Amino acid sequence: MTKRLPRVLVIDHEPAAADWIQSVLATGGFEVETAHTGERGEELFRQSRPDVVIADFGLPDVEGVTLLRRLKAVDPTPEVIVVSGQGTVAGAVEAGQAGAFYFLDKPVNRDGLLKIVVRASDRARERTEHQQLKEQMRGQQSVTNIIGQSKLMKELFDLVESVAGSEANILIQGENGTGKELIANALHYNSKRGRGPFIKINCAAIPRDLIESELFGYKKGAFTGASGDKVGLLELAEGGSLLLDEIGEMPSFLQTKLLRVLQEREYRPIGSERIVRLDFRLICATNIDIETALREGRLREDLYFRINTITMRVPSLRERTEDIPLLCNHFLSKFNQRHQRHVRSLSSAAYHLLIRSRWPGNVRELENAIERAVLVCKTGEVTPADLPDTIRDDSPVAQEFTIPPHRTLAEIEKMAILQTLQRTNWNKQEAAQLLGLYRPTLYSKMKKHDIRDERTGRRV
C-alpha cells in the first residue's frame, strides 16, 4: 500500500506567498492545500485534517491567535507554524502559549522553511502514532474485552471504570482463575499511569528468603551471593503501577516493611545508603478469605487497611453461569484459530454439563476444558464425550426431586424451586425452563418464598 504524503495546509491572505510556499513544500514531498482567509482555512482544516498548518498572523478576517486556538480546539494533533511580517517577542510568546510549534518572521528562507516543516511533520506523526498505540493498548486492556454480561460482572466493570483514573490503592479479591490479573490490567492501562511500567510480582511464587531482595533490591556485597547491584521491583515501578499478587502469602516481617514503605514512600535497598523515593500506584490481589487471614495473623490489619482503599471482588464462575455461553464461544473461536480446527458449537447436553459444574478452577478451568474439547472433537459440535472426565462425573446434587410427606402446597412449591435451582447451579434461566415458568415469574416466586441464592446469600 502506498504511504500517504504528509499534508500541509497553508493559510495566507497573499496568493503569491501561499503559492510560493506550496511550490517549495511540493519539492520536499508534501501534499499542500492553500486558503486565503481564516474562515476557509478552518473549513479545510476540518475536512482534510492536515499534519502541519502554516498560518499567517496578518489575516484580514480573523486574528492569528484566535485562529490558532480554534484549530487546536478542533484537533490538537497537527502542528501549527505561525508566520508574521511584524514579528515581536510578545507575539511569539502569545503564539507559543496558544500551542504554536514555531514562529517564523517574514521573509521566509526556503531551506529554513523546509527544515521547520519536516520537523513539525515528524512530531505530528509521532504524536499520532503514540495516540494510536495508546488507544490500542487501552482497547486491549479495556474491561469491554473481559467476557461477561452478568449483573455481577457489569457491576464490577462499572467500578473499574469509576476508579481506574484515580490514585487509590486497589485490593482485588477472587478465587483462582476468576481473572483478577485481567482486572488489574484494565485498572493500570486505563489510568493516568497507563504509559508507565506495570510491574507484577506473585508473592506465592517467589521463595520467602528471596522476595525481600526482589522487592527492594540490594547493593553488591550486601550478602553472600550478591555479586552485583540489583534494582528492586518497587523502584522499577516508578511512574507506573505495581501488582502484588497473592499478597496474603507475603511473610509477616516483609508486610511490616512494606507498610512502612507505603507510609514513607521511600526506602533503602538492602546494604545500600542510597534512598529510593517511590512513585507508583499499588494494586494487590488475593484469593484468601480476608477475615480468616486477619484473625489468624497471616495478614496484618494495618497493612490491610492501607492497601484496600477500594476493594473489588471478582465473582466465581458458578456465581455467573449465565456468562458460560459467552465464554465458550470466545474460547471456541480462540482455539479453533490456534489449533486450525473448525468446531462450530457445543451441544445442548454439553452446555447442560458445563452449567451444572462447580468450576473450582473458574474461567481458567473452563478455558482448559474448551481447549481439550476443540482438540478431541471429531465433528463440528462439542458433545459431553469431548469434555474432561471431571466435568462429566461432577454430580454435586441429587437428580431426583423428592417431597417429604405432610407438606403444604406452598412448601412443596418452594422445595421444587429450590431443588431445581440447586440442580442447575443457580442458573435461573435454565431453572425457569425446567419448571415451565417465565423467568420473571420465577423471580416473583423466589421473592414470595424468600429463597436466597446459596452462593451469595442475596435476595432476588
SSE layout:
Layout (H helix, E strand, L loop, with lengths): L6 E5 L3 H13 L3 E5 L2 H11 L3 E5 L7 H11 L4 E6 L4 H9 L4 E4 L4 H31 L10 H13 L6 E4 L6 H10 L8 E5 L8 H6 E2 L11 E2 L1 H4 L4 E5 L6 H13 L1 E2 L8 E2 L3 E6 L3 H7 L4 H7 L2 E4 L10 H16 L5 E2 L1 H9 L5 H15 L4 E2 L6 H4 L16 H15 L4 H8 L3 H10 L12
Parallel strand pairs: 1-2, 1-3, 3-4, 4-5, 6-13, 6-14, 7-10, 10-13, 15-16
Antiparallel strand pairs: 8-9, 11-12
Helix pairs in contact: 2-3, 13-15, 17-18, 18-19
How does this model look, in words?
The protein has helices spanning 15-27, 38-48, 64-74, 89-97, 110-140, 151-163, 180-189, 211-216, 233-236, 252-264, 290-296, 301-307, 324-339, 348-356, 362-376, 389-392, 409-423, 428-435, 439-448; strands spanning 7-11, 31-35, 52-56, 79-84, 102-105, 170-173, 198-202, 217-218, 230-231, 241-245, 266-267, 276-277, 281-286, 310-313, 345-346, 381-382. By secondary structure, the protein is α/β, with parallel strands linked by helices. The protein folds into 4 domains: 7-136, Rossmann fold; 148-315, P-loop containing nucleotide triphosphate hydrolases (Rossmann fold); 318-392, Helicase, Ruva Protein, domain 3 (Orthogonal Bundle); 399-460, Arc Repressor Mutant, subunit A, CATH 1.10.10.60. Helix 18 (428-435) crosses helix 19 (439-448). The protein is extended and about 105 Å long.
